Amino acid sequence: MNTTDNKTLDICQIKALLPHRYPMLLVDRVLTWEANKSITAIKNVTANEEFFNGHFPHKPVMPGVLMIEALAQTAALLSFLTMGVSPDENSIVYFVGIDNARFKRPVGPGDQLKMDVEILRVSRGIWKYKAVGTVDGAIALEAELMCTIRGTSDASKPAVQ
């Protein structure tokens, strides 16, 4: 896939880079990205999301853990784009850590979660990112994420050796 000319990605290009599928694919479009630096993507939150049936029927709220997951998927996209590779079925991106996660406002049906992720550093196979999710310009959540990319055969080995 040639992703170097166009700095946006549609859902088909995203699915070529992420193994996630419905209902766990939480990135709808990449608006812009710059290798080794940052990415901006969106998740259109709709009333049809399966999790709203139970979280909460009287006041639908997107679970915080899924908002973090959406940021992590955005970060994974940035990593693959930065490396200039398309992962194969043996590539998995794992969380190594989540620091300073803060939830500032609820996200619900009709909201568009805009996700801005920047690379803070890459060291010994660990990627660290600053991630912020906003709705209508207001911060909904922010966190520092750490991830690593592993092959499925290496999945049980420690992230840092």
Quickly describe the structure.
It contains 2 helices and 6 strands; from the N terminus they run H-E-E-H-E-E-E-E. The chain is of the alpha+beta class and 161 residues long. The model has no long low-confidence stretch (mean pLDDT 92).
Topology:
Elements: H1 11-17, E1 29-34, E2 38-44, H2 64-83, E3 91-103, E4 112-123, E5 126-135, E6 138-151
Antiparallel strand pairs: 1-2, 2-4, 3-6, 4-5, 5-6
Tell me about this structure:
There is one protein chain. With 161 residues, this protein is α+β, with helices and mostly antiparallel strands. It has a single domain (11-154), classed as Hotdog Thioesterase (Thiol Ester Dehydrase, Chain A). Helices cover 17% and strands 39% of the residues. A 6-stranded antiparallel beta sheet has the order 1-2-4-5-6-3, with helices on one face. The protein starts with 10 loop residues before the first helix and ends in a 10-residue tail after the last strand. Its EC number is 4.2.1.59. It comes from Massilia psychrophila. The active site is at 55. This is 3-hydroxyacyl-[acyl-carrier-protein] dehydratase FabZ.
